[in-house]
Amino acid sequence: MLVLALPAALLLVLPAAPARAQSSEVHDRDAPLVPRGRLRLDLVPTFASWNSRFGLRREDGRTVEEEEPLGLDLTDPAGTRMFPGIRTLEDDLRALIDDPSYRSRLGATRARVGQDVTRVDLGARLGVFDWLTLGVTLPVVRTLTDIDVHFAPDTIDGDLGLNPAMSQADAVARFLQELVTRAADAQNLAAEVCAADASSRGCADAQSASQGVTEFLDRIQGALFASPFFPLAGSPVGLALSGSLAALSQALQRVGLQGIDAPLPFASARPTADDFVNLPANPLSGIAGAPLRSMEGLWQMGDLEMFATVRLLRGEIRDSAEAPPKASYLLAGGFLVRSGTGKTDDPDIFLDLGTGDGQTDYEGRLFAIATWKSRIRLAATARYGAQSARAIVRRVTPPDAILAPASSRRVLEWTPGSYRSVEVSPQYRLTPELSFTGAYSYFRKDRDRYTLRADASGDLPAVDVSVLELETARTLHEIEAGLRYSTVSAWRQGRAGSPMELSFAVRKAIHGAGGRTPKATRIVLGLRIFKRIFGADPRRAAPATPASASPPPLPR
Q: H or E stretch including 94?
């Protein structure tokens, strides 16, 4: 808030002066007010693009905050971190082969991800009174996520292939059914032998065989249905798994039961690059999402904004009553309601970008503008917004786990964090029509909150929804430079047919924090036209300006 204090303090200490003519109202991009009876129509396209973020991650037990590419979460030397079910697969395989140090290997993945948002703000502001302006902005948004994933199978040390449950479903079913039968036989035998003599060696052997086949059944089922992958036939882990199965079969035979005849199906093929990209969409993968491919959204509505602005203070400093103003100042406040007409990101389309939050925001605003000798202008804007809660569907997973299983989908109550921002915008008039503009902005958003809706949880497994709150707080610093061409002053002097403004600016993120904060570059264009709806034409009340006079004041 310190950056707002200087112009605001200047406004408070300057002597107030009565309004002299409608030409003293501001009409440029940062103008909070429109004169009475005037309608300002805005067309503001913005093109934002980024392929990196101000990241946050843990490495070797320490926190690392630095710029990182968006594709980092899809990059893995072993190719297994992307699929969360592989951790379950590894745990089950370690138990089955009795090797706590086992780690699977699939192949290296690298990814390049870029995101773009094209937003066109269609706005209108009406000056109800000189001190009151009402406005509305309808954003139309189109998003693009460009994903390029490269997967290189490890043909030397890689020990995982495509899960046989996807290609040999019948063989997998026969194998598991035989295990179920043998487990039942072993359980019945143990009950029979131990009923006769619970302390006998035969009872201990039967119980051991029953426990062994039951544990093997549980672990192998978990391994087969944990992920899209399973050990390759002939791989070291595959051979060790076959050995464990043979030992189990022999243990059953030693107590007089039939051994396991059905073969354990193994993966027969390594995944190709196309397989890897399309696996999330495979119904048997357990992910049930969209493929890892680029996706371009349709033009859709964003969150509609409705606002009101009230003038709090205005004045001018003149050397004499006849002289043009040496300085002028304006202080205004406003209130905005942002309705939830936008579409949030789809939980089944990974790395999707929404067009809005789909809930209601309430935002308070404060504007301070000061000009000096009609060429130099300094504006400051402060905003604070509170965001209301809404129901939303999310996959409950840490932010770096892109491919979350379908079983993690939950209906949640989402409360986005409150936000505040401060922007300082200097402007220097090069000619009566052309100005150089700049800006520095600071934005901060608090952490989001998620709670599991009791009416939607049902009998689903418990999940820790707090992982969704990680990396939702954001801090962003941006700078901007641009040009503005305006005929408002020339129109008032009779030198232009109609008032309008054109603007061009480039805004760039220079620093940020939070983990998911995009490092974006924005190109902002602006077209504004002004129409008189009611009231007198200000040009009839304003005397002509001699050609030798100083340049007209900045249009306000």
A: helix 85-97
C-beta separation of 183 from 214 below 8 A: yes
Q: Can you tell me the distance from the alpha carbon of 340 to that of 7, in angstroms, rounded to the nearest whole number? A: 34
What 3-state DSSP class applies to 170?
Answer: helix
Q: Give the whole-angstrom CA distance, residue 282 versus residue 403.
A: 12
Q: Are 251 and 209 in contact (CB under 8 A)?
A: yes
pTM score of the predicted model: 0.84
Three-state SS at 519: coil
Q: β-strands 295-296, 229-231: how paired?
A: unpaired
Strand partners, 450: 414
Structural tokens at position 366? 């404060």
Helix, strand, coil % in the chain, rounded to nearest 5: 25, 40, 35
280 touches 292 (CB < 8 A) = yes
Find all residues with CB under 8 Å of 498, minimum gap 6, and list them: 487, 491, 529, 530
Which one, of 14, 24, 40, lies nearest residue 307 by Cα? 40
Nearest in space to 380 (alpha carbons), one of 422, 408, 334, 342: 422
Q: 162 vs 97, 158, 264, 265, 283, CA distance in Å? A: 20, 12, 15, 11, 14
Local confidence band at 198 (pLDDT 50, 70, 90 cut-offs) = confident
As a whole number of angstroms, the distance between CA 428 and CA 378 comes to 9
pLDDT, tens digit (0-9, with 9 covering 90-100), for 244-257: 999 999 999 999 99
Alpha carbon distances (Å) from 135 to 40, 139, 309, 348: 9, 13, 8, 36
Residue spans of the domains in the chain: they are 29-65+83-104+119-151+285-311+327-539, 160-271
HEC per residue, 202-213 = HHHHHHHHHHHH
Pick the more confident residue, 502 or 13. 502
**Fold classified for 29-65+83-104+119-151+285-311+327-539:** Porin (2.40.160)
Rounded distance between C-alpha atoms, residue 378 and residue 521, angstroms: 24
Helix (H) or strand (E) holding 273: helix 273-278
